[in-house]
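STRUCTURE REQUEST FORM
Protein name: Multidrug resistance efflux pump
Source organism: Belliella buryatensis
Requested output: structure tokens
Priority: standard
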Amino acid sequence: MLNISRNNVEKKVSFEGFKSLVMSEPSDQSKKRVRVMLWFLLGTVLFIFLPWTQNVRSNGYVTALRPDQRPQTVHSIIAGRIEKWYVSEGDYVSKGDTILLISEIKDDYFDPQLLERTQLQVDAKVLSAKSYEQKVKAQQMQIDALRSNNILRKEQATNRLRMAELKVTSDSIRFEQAKVNFSIGEQQLQRAEELLEKGLRSLTDFETRKLRFQEVQANLIASENNLLSSRNELIAAQIELNAIDNDFRDRVAKAESEMYSAMSSQFDSEAAATKLSNQFTNYEFRTGFRHILAPQDGYITQAIQVGIGETIKEGAQILSILPADAQLAVEMFVEPVDLPLLRPGNKVRFIFDGWPAIVFSGWPQLSNGTFGGKVVAIDNFAGPNNKYRVLVVEDPEEDPWPYALKIGSGADGIALLNDVPIWYEIWRQLNGFPADYYTRKEKLANKDNK
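Status: completed
Returned output:
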């Protein structure tokens, strides 16, 4: 730059009247502005290289992590009429405490002695089944006795058959002997008649021989008659032996028929007793359902059915209960375009309703009044609002969430993603590019693979 103050013309000519020329000469203030501008540019360059935390911001509300710890409604299992309330809204109840008493409105259960009379029916059917059981045992004993008796009768009939066979053999021998005697007697009678004709025998001797022959002939006829009688007895013994089995089968079939009839009646009685026992158990449980009990420890929040004498249907909602000591979580809803950026384990910062906070989205470490969280679950389908639900729990590495935080409180969530330079984030925002999908570690791994 030309230094006018050192121009030789300055010694000869005065420039005090040339205001424009005087204004062009550098002053101390201009030099300060240039230095400030240079430092500002240098600071800006350094600033754009500072780390910036990418984030996805979404609103949500406080809920419970486990489904059984979330607010629930208590239903009535049976239809009934409200008789008495034992609690008020806001009361703390323990599991099993009686909340409400209802009475029956169906005529099938009006009888105050329904359980006792049903038990009597059960006992009667059980005794009936036992009596049929005893009858079955008696029939079985009768069948066993018939089998034993049949064995003895068959042995007796077999012995009779054997005796008849031996008697037939004995009578046949006697008959053969009688035939031999008859043949000898006939020959002797012929010889005696010849000797009588020759005069060698007297008539008395001949008549005596004739009488003896008549006895032999009668003995032959008697022996043959005895043989035929023995054969008839043998046939009768065989018939009796065969009839024993037939008679046994007939008696056993009759006894078994009666036994099976008794067994059928026994099974029918047992089935009826089981059905009545089931009915008695149902009545007993139904009686217990008249008292509406607290399903778990919690606080009564809202009574849906109110008043005394009001009737309610089966499965009707009676009241809502808020479980105590629930593990809190936050339900966030993110846009589909931001869903691929979130994974279980991602860090989240929350601003809860009622707790003031100063938030720097890109520098969460500078934020004040926020609370840390960690993603534990992400839905695989969009909800009615066309957003995906993300469950976030308290981060154990951060300060605990406020003690007074309740289910249903609003929460403004900031899901923390990758750390990138500020210039990169400005460039991304200007071009409308999404945030980084991968962590810094995954980027390095992909770089090594390439």
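Reviewer notes: The longest helix spans residues 203-288. Residues 76 and 315 are 5 Å apart (CA to CA).
Form closed.
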